[in-house]
Automatic annotation (TrEMBL):
This is Glycosyltransferase EpsH. Residues 98-146 form the Glycosyltransferase 2-like domain. Residues 384-407 are annotated as: Disordered. The gene is epsH. Pfam families: Glycos_transf_2. Keywords: Glycosyltransferase, Transferase. The keyword Phosphoprotein does not apply. Its EC number is 2.4.-.-. GO terms for molecular function: hexosyltransferase activity.
Amino acid sequence: MTGASAAAPLLSVVMPFRDPGDLLEPALGQLDALRHGPGRSPGSGEVEIVVVDDGSTDGSPETAADWVARRDDAVLVTVASSPATPAGSTAADSCHGGVARARDAGVRAARGTYIWMVDCDDRIPPETVDLVLPLLSAQSAPVAGGDTADTPDMVCFRAQVTEPSGRVRTVDGAPRRPGRSPRLLDRDGLAAALLDGTVRGYLWTKVIRRSVLAGVLDRYPHTSSQSDFMTVLACVPDLHRTLLLPDTGYGYVQRQGSVSTTDTRQLDNTARCADLALSVLPPMVGGRLRPRILAASFRVWFHLVPCCATPVHQAWPPGRVRDVHRGLLPGIGVRGIVCTALTGHPGVAAHAVVLRCLGPAGLYPPVYRTGRALLDAVSGRVARHSPQLRNSKTESRTARRRHSSDR
């Protein structure tokens, strides 16, 4: 480990990397922009940068080391090449350490009161730090309902997810509506929000108290996917005050081919994560009926529908797709579909109906591919024309104002 200033910072930003190539220098530039803001300057001590090399062989460790050496508020952590495998992990999961183990190393090295995990190939808006810091240091912050959030255990903001097709969607945080205030959740409210999808398992939309993260480092498996959600699930028992923000604070970029197109581990990991979530979260939700509805919905929207669609979306061989559907389709029943629709996922419920009706006959793959192609085409067309539409609307409003003033 190299670098570090003496004073303990309020926020540590942890960025792991492995063989990032040309992505590293732009990522370091984004981290540089996080180090200063209104009323802050680089080296002010409020923000610490922790970059974690997970066994890179492309020269990026030298680039990172040089960057850290010129800053007194940054550290470089190098992950050992022969990790111990946490309970529930496999040897394949621990190959090269993996992003989960690299993040753990970053948490151990971080000195901040709070930690924000970011990825080196995403968009990291500098204003996010300015948005979050006052909430972490203020004695009280206004939230919906007139309550206050005294030093929250977790702050969750929104993120824009850009898919390889160019389609953009927003996840996490409080719904963005005019006049919308941050929303404060207790532990039970957070459990319900995770089950209904209001809060997702991504770490990059969350700033979490370091003491909470440090306490769960050995309590979840280091899997090749879903490690973010498993980390959040391990933290939930200690997250008594979660602040949901309506502001967008991150840009996640999904890259083509980032996951093997025939790797069944991603489906296995999703099933393991769903099982873990359903063992941890429903008991925290109050009432008799509500936990059952949320649990049935979660199984459908988080596990069954995505795991049936993924092999088709990634063009797995037809035999592999049939095997997956044979194992999962019986779990999609009327009760689960109804609960999914009732908990804010009508689109997923409709998708589940299509799967249940067409899947056994093998008709789902062509229908899915056709529907997805149409959706991507429409999304891409809207994305291409949205600037012109906005400009046209602005010009129209300007013309109306001029006409009104002329009258």
